[in-house]
Amino acid sequence: MVEPIIIGTIVFTNILILSSIGLTLTYLTTKVPNFAHGSFLTIGAYVGVYAFSIQEISPYYYIPFAFLIGGSVALLQYKLVLKPLMNRGANIVILMIATLTVDVFLFGLINIIADWLTTTYKIYVTYVIFKRLDFKIFDIEGIAIISTIFVILICTLLYILLYKTRFGISMRAVMENPSLSQILGINIDRVLTFSWFLSGGLAGLAGIFYGFQIPINTTAGQTFLPIIFAASIAGGLNSLFGAILGGIVVGTLSMYLPYYLSRFGSIEILNIKISLIEILRVQPLIPLVIMAIVLLIFPKGLMGINYSKITYIIKNTIKIQWRR
């Protein structure tokens, strides 16, 4: 039987990877950290609530709707809020405040929907979790399999898009130098439109998976947003694939560290007995601590590491040891 901590880590990491890719994508193309990104995840989770509680079918069937609705909301944020401000020459501070404003608006809208679900259908969203309609294959929960398949598929398609298509070349050009891209005739607005839609869609998809792992409430996205930022920054905000690496590292350590440390009971430091079980209470801080440690060692994030140089040093060290 597969340990629950392994299944939980796989699902949590997959949710984090999908969310981090979306956040990093909009940052690379628009150069603005989107503080409303967590709300897209909550919206996707509520699409799952509609399927689970009202339609009484598996939320898996509503994955396309979660992607489309999350993407559409993100697209509206770009078209109606950010693009007009950017056309007027707004700086990054104003754009950041604008994303916070959108987040507050979406949070209020989500609470209205939650209240409507409670009064109309007697659904208390705080306690909704989708595990009852999940399936198992050889004692492995379906969400671990489905979410992993989606992550692998999306990462593969993203690589093909960026490196094997003309539109992907345009996207990378806009990420590197928007001004030069415009001079070269690249349609920047089309790239940004696609990037924002994809970003919101991935967050909505992550929201569906979130409901299989964690009970849903109206603050789900706001609670998860610092973890998404931690993964994106730890991986390196200048690389989409850094978001994947950051998601894996932060997601895995965030789940495993509290689990293993709590098994040791307590430790004594300077005659002060510290219960390691208490670490579980500060679990949300662990991703931020991991991010801080990574940045202290690698200021540009994990993708800023010169891996070829490290490989060269390791090979030379092995050769020297072998000669001895």
Given this structure, which CATH class is correct?
Answer: Mainly Alpha
For the terminal residues, how far apart are their CA atoms?
Answer: 46 Å
> What's the order of the H and E elements?
HHHHEEHHHHHHEEHH
Beta-strand residue percentage:
under 5%
The Cα radius of gyration reads 21 Å
Kindly state the number of beta strands: 4
Return the domain count. 1
Quick structural gist:
With 324 residues, the chain is mainly alpha-helical. It has helices spanning 4-30, 37-55, 63-87, 92-121, 142-164, 166-176, 178-183, 188-213, 220-235, 240-261, 286-297, 307-323, and strands spanning 136-137, 140-141, 266-269, 272-275.
What does this protein look like?
- The chain is mainly alpha-helical and 324 residues long.
- It has one domain (4-323): ABC transporter involved in vitamin B12 uptake, BtuC.
- 72% of the residues lie in helices and 4% in strands.
- It has helices at 4-30, 37-55, 63-87, 92-121, 142-164, 166-176, 178-183, 188-213, 220-235, 240-261, 286-297, 307-323; strands at residues 136-137, 140-141, 266-269, 272-275.
- β3 (266-269) and β4 (272-275) form a beta hairpin.
- The longest helix is centred in the first third of the chain and has 30 residues, at 92-121.
